[in-house]
Amino acid sequence: MKKTIIATLVLTSILLLITISPYVEWIEVFIIIGSISIISIIYNLFLKTNQKYSQIMFSSAFIGFLFSYVFSLFDLVVDHYKVIQGVPDGRFFTLSETISEFSDDLFIIALIVMISVTLITFASTTIYSKSVGKLHNT
Fold first, then answer.
1. Which parts of 1-138 are beta strand (E)?
2. Could you list the pLDDT tens digit for every one of the 138 residues in the chain?
3. Which residues pair with 92 in a beta bridge?
4. Could you give the C-alpha distances from 120 to 21, 72, 117, in angstroms and in order?
5. Closest CA to 113 of 47, 26, 44
């Protein structure tokens, strides 16, 4: 399972490297949501067993928010060096100016990803626990 998490992180990084944009686009947000959901599901179902739903919700929200910021900043830094960004006076943005320019957007994206990952993880753990429960009862 740990290899699957590492493979998911590497694949997500590669997909974010392939997409070129001056900021984090929606397709990149969906890539981030998908990969973090996979990581959260693996973590909560297979690496941390016998958790309560409140613990699953908290850990998936924490994983979603933290990894969203990490992936978004990674994408922003990579895209900063791939795409030349200028300001109206003709000079180029520095990396810190680029990050500060999109800091509000990164926070909103982190909230969207956190909510999405929490809902997806909750739904998948509920379905998994009910299906496993049915298998053991028969």
1. none
2. 789 889 999 999 999 888 877 778 899 999 999 999 999 998 888 777 677 888 888 999 999 999 999 999 999 888 888 776 655 566 777 888 888 888 899 999 999 999 999 999 989 988 888 887 654 444
3. 86
4. 27, 20, 5
5. 26
